[in-house]
Design brief:
By secondary structure, the protein is mainly α. The chain has 17 helices and 8 strands. The protein folds into 3 domains: 1-70, Arc Repressor Mutant, subunit A (Orthogonal Bundle); 79-188, DNA polymerase, domain 1, CATH 1.10.150; 194-370, Intergrase catalytic core (hpI Integrase, Chain A, Orthogonal Bundle). Helices cover 52% and strands 10% of the residues. Strands 1-3-2 form a 3-stranded antiparallel β-sheet. It has a 3-stranded antiparallel β-sheet with strand order 6-7-8, with no helix packed on it. A two-stranded antiparallel sheet has the order 4-5. α5 (102-119) packs across α7 and α10 (213-229) crosses α14 (321-334). It starts with a strand and ends with a helix.
């Protein structure tokens, strides 16, 4: 008798995706078979029961069935399946009661493995300990605050999962809080003034060695949209064709930060660039507004890399999509646009956050004062 991943997931009280991952990584000794015109993982019932008895102990807590690995100490050689299940709990909401955003789960995954890598080949046991956390977080310089904080956040989440599973003492997270990184150096903020922004946009047409005119149009559309709307990178990447109404000159930002919707306007400069972009945009099944030359959407990481490359090539420094968001506030504030209008456009709850985005230089203030 063979069992499917659906049946195993139901029996163990886990997500089907977790069982599929176990099978794909050969942690669960399932076989890939061809059934009803598609491939599917199957495992013999006796083999499944032996595997379950060897690797998992069933626990019943309240109305939910939970499963924990046997008391075998966590080591690098047997940690991967546990990490997979932890991340699956994050995705499905089993860990915190609501699903954690995919980008956050990606960061947890990356920085937890960075934690393991930093421990070296022969780390002290147990791997998840206050001493090891202190060693890893303290090994990064003060200027690497974001790296230190991301490692700390991944450890806090993983520790919560282990505590629920009964593999870690309940007060571990309280002890770990004492190691939360503190920012000692001011955050590095970058922004462009109006002349630098014009230089960046005009330089895109002058890129040598690129025969792909669509790639240039896409780059110009991405930069112009970020600089003229103040959208976040994640918000821009999620824009669909239905979200951009060129006839009414409106962009609908759906489920931005804090899961709030907002609407921003399209000015004349942006309207012209978006019309040119849409004329060249390939026709495909994607609903995303911005797609690359291989007809795929952008993710925040790829978008950041693209903007950074363009800024270096243009000679305006190293900037990111968030730099263009600050530029939007800075340039428009200098033109006398109401700060509260900019706050609403950016989706800020507090106007002091918008004020913090203004990166007006002392030279600009001096020049302005000469005309007072």
């Amino acid at each position: 008798m063979y069992l499917s991943t659906d049946e195993i997931a139901k029996d163990m009280g886990l997500a089907k995706r977790t069982i599929q991952t176990y099978s794909k990584e050969s942690f669960l000794p399932a076989k890939l078979v061809w059934l009803n015109g598609k491939t599917e993982y199957k495992i013999e019932s006796d083999q499944y029961l032996n595997w379950k008895q060897e690797h998992f102990n069933g626990l019943k807590r309240g109305n939910q069935n939970r499963h924990t690995r046997t008391t075998k100490p966590l080591g690098k050689e047997n940690l991967d399946p546990v990490i997979y299940e932890w991340l699956e709990w994050c995705r499905t909401g089993m860990l915190t009661g609501k699903p954690i955003k995919p980008r956050t789960v990606e960061l947890y995954n990356y920085y937890f493995y960075l934690y393991l890598k930093t421990l070296g080949k022969n780390p002290s046991k147990p791997l998840i300990s206050i001493n090891n956390a202190r060693l890893v977080i303290g090994s990064f310089p003060v200027k690497s605050f974001s790296t230190k904080l991301n490692i700390y956040s991944a450890l806090m989440s993983f520790a919560k999962y282990l505590a629920i599973q009964g593999k870690l003492e309940e007060d571990f997270r309280d002890k770990l809080k004492e190691l939360r990184p503190r920012r000692y150096l001011p955050a590095k903020k970058t922004s462009l003034n109006e002349k630098q922004l014009e230089k960046l946009i005009s330089s895109i047409d002058d890129i040598e060695g690129s025969s792909n005119s669509y790639d240039k149009l896409t780059s110009k559309a991405l930069v112009t949209t970020l600089a003229n709307t103040g959208l976040r990178a994640s918000e821009l990447c999620k824009l669909t064709l239905k979200d951009v109404d060129l006839e009414s000159r409106l962009i609908k930002v759906r489920l931005g930060k804090g899961n709030k919707d907002r609407t921003v306007g399209i000015n004349e400069a942006l309207y012209t660039v978006l019309i040119e972009y849409l004329k060249a945009r390939p026709v495909n099944d994607s609903e995303l507004f911005f797609i690359n030359k291989i007809k795929e959407g952008f993710n925040p990481h790829a978008l950041c890399q693209k903007i950074t490359r363009l800024s270096k090539r243009a000679g305006v420094g190293v900037i990111s999509p968030h730099s263009l968001r600050r530029s939007f506030v800075t340039i428009n504030a200098a033109k006398g646009k109401p700060l509260n209008h900019l706050r609403i456009a950016c989706g800020h709850a507090d106007i002091t956050t918008t004020q913090g985005y203004c990166m007006t230089s002392q030279d600009e203030v001096i020049e302005a004062m000469k005309g007072w």
